[in-house]
Amino acid sequence: LPYVNNVPHLGNIIGCVLSADVFARYACPRIFREPYRFLIIFTTNLHFFRIAQDIFLKLHENGYTSSSSIDQLHCQNCDKFLADRFVTGICPFCAYDDARGDQCDSCGRLINAVELKSPKCHICRQEPKVRQSTHIFLHLDALQDVRKYVESEIAKPNTRWSSNAVAIVKGWIKGGLEKRCITRDLKWGTAVPIPGYENKVCVLCVVRRSDRISFNYEVSLVQFHRKGLSCNDNVAFHGVMFPCTQLGARDNYTIVNHVCATEYLNYEDTKFSKSRNTGVFGDNAKETGIEADVWRFYLLYMRPESQDTSFSWDDFALKVRCYEIYVYVECLRFQLFVQVSARIRSQCGAERLPVFSAYPMSYLKPGHKIGTPKPLFVKMESAKVAEWKAKFGGSALTNDLDKKRKGELCNRLDNCLLNGSESCHSMIDAIQKQLVEAETAAGIKQVPVPSIHPATVATEVKQANEKKPTAAPGGGKKTESTSVVDISDAAADDAVDVGRLDLRVGRIVKCEKHPDADALYVEQIDIGESAPRTVVSGLVRHVPLDQMQNRLVVVLCNLKPAKMRGVESRAMVMCASTPEKVEIMEVDPSAQPGTPVTCPPYTHRPDAQLNPKKKIWETVAEDLKVNADGYAVWKDCPLLVGGSTKMTAPTLRGVPIK
């Protein structure tokens, strides 16, 4: 089953559909198909509903469920609670302005929809409101037997759990099993069989997995469905959630013991997205006119067995072309082999091999019609490939093209300004010379005026700034921001680089969990001002609370303040970040709160507040990362604390800083 809420894209297809289809073709030869056709399995039949509700009731009766109220986004215009993927907004971690309600495509972090800043309904673009709704939770923490089950399955010498499936499930268990919501506010699905919850349905982790066993209700086939093929983001549900529901039901169900998982298939250098029209979806693949077997060939060739892979139109065309040549060579080789084989048989005195029939018999079914033969692998013309790339590139491709065009225009403008500046200087010098000659001839006395070079002005401004009060030695409080502005190059003020960021050392003087969000901390951070700033960070799942206390951090101080679950955040803690792991960037223990973090040779000229519409932070963040030595760099230039020591990541290397 493809676990999607829209037309499946190529990643959905290879993850859990095409892989399962190949396995089914291997496991079910034609002579065995009829028995399987007898087992008509649909998740809409009464048996399925009955078993799903039976498991739900047994979990409830055995004390593994409880009710609790949670915050959800409700669109008044659409008159419904919004699923996570139907909400977009600003990422609370990296400030990406088009993050979804379940995950940010920019930093890869998982998000609760209510954590988004400035959320919008993806359907009507109106701002949804936070409402409370009562739901039923499954006590995963009370079903620790699943840990023993997983460990025993993995430890088997002939285990059928792929390595990435093992890693994902172990990560879930290591992070601690907690209560998880298993109901939703939807109008379709399997109804919750408990009074008071008539308007809610069971969530997929209970219901959808029940279809695996629903056909056993009338047919006596014990332990038939034992193998699960699932894509990356469903492994934890197959390997942890579903076994927990089976163990909690105490009904001796066969628990999944074969899990084959894939990583993610991306599209070109971005991700598939229906909302952004990025990527090839099932209906698009059919419209291209490319044969289904060609799609199957390339998707299986690029199947993300142990690491992420990407669908690329250029590589697709190349692989198809190479395979076309391979098939042609094989045909030639076969013809040559027939001739060589005949010669060998002649030399051995065996014109015909007795063990094989010269003409193997084959029968066609009555009414069979032979179709028109046509080549399967045909050359993809470059122009057609370029057309498909443009058609399915979506907004990501448009943005890349816009950036490329802007870069080209900026280069042209720079060249024009450079040439124009030289021409203007020459013209001004010539006019000045003519004026002096004319005035001298008329008897007008000439008074020499000293030339003012921009570098001289810059030096004077710098000296004046140095006389202004700054942070006192030893980390005293700043009374006023006194960043030196280098005006020797006026264009630098408008350039988007790391110098526009107000990065400072801060010390967390107090940290506690957000009262209304399980994944957020609320910190009070001293950054060298008269009072600490309040900062909200999504670090609960990555840094223990005791390690947050009295800790030195680097803080981005000139982001626009934003409310996160009712608490205004006035800065952002800088972290080395991957989807699986987040580390707070470290500084020298002797650094004092308020110490600026700079990046020579880029001039430190922080904006008072970064304009969200100009996307200054988003642009700078693309090149802000941890290098191979563990140092924070921007375009390979190290970030320096107080102009001397480097900012480092504890263990992560070659990852972005968010």
UniProtKB/TrEMBL annotation:
InterPro entries associated with the record: aa-tRNA-synth_I_CS, Met-tRNA_ligase_1, Methionyl/Leucyl_tRNA_Synth, MetRS_Zn, NA-bd_OB-fold, Rossmann-like_a/b/a_fold, tRNA-bd_dom
GO MF: ATP binding; methionine-tRNA ligase activity; tRNA binding
Gene Ontology process terms (BP): methionyl-tRNA aminoacylation
Signal peptide as annotated in the record: none
TRNA-binding domain residues: 497-598
Reaction(s) the record says it catalyses: tRNA(Met) + L-methionine + ATP = L-methionyl-tRNA(Met) + AMP + diphosphate
Region annotated Disordered, chain positions: 461-483
GO cellular-component term (any): cytosol
A Pfam family of this chain: tRNA-synt_1g
Family assignment from sequence similarity: Belongs to the class-I aminoacyl-tRNA synthetase family.
Protein name: Methionyl-tRNA synthetase
